Amino acid sequence: MEFLTDKHLLNFEIMDDLHKEFIEIYNSVEENNYKSYKNVITKLLEQTKRHFSEEEKLMDLYKYPRFKEHKDEHNKVLKEMEYFLKNSHSIFGQKILKSYYTQKLPYWFDLHLTTMDRDLVYFIKEKNS
Ligand SMILES: [Fe+2]
Ligand SMILES: [Fe+2]
Question: Which of 6, 26, 66, 111 has the highest CB neighbour number within 10 Å of its CB?
């Protein structure tokens, strides 16, 4: 994954830094090494919890009206990450974890950032202007 200025930059430092950090951790995985997938997704889960809690603090602070949809989406992805991690003991589980990691997670990241996160930043900026 690459941090693409056109697509990913929100011009809101706290969130941009968290998103860059996500990509950095994401990219640290060693391909064809299941143990590495497990280690990196564990790290990513911890970072993502911090990332979401920072965004949710902003939602509360600015009384963001669409907080429910946004928080639900956060909780959904945390549950998914936990689920695939918990079920990665068998070879089958490891394959599923890898598919989730390589196919679904980047897609989710792009979609969430360009829709919900962008909307949140837009709202904060409007409120501050
Ligand atoms: Fe985010
Ligand atoms: Fe978010």
Answer: 26
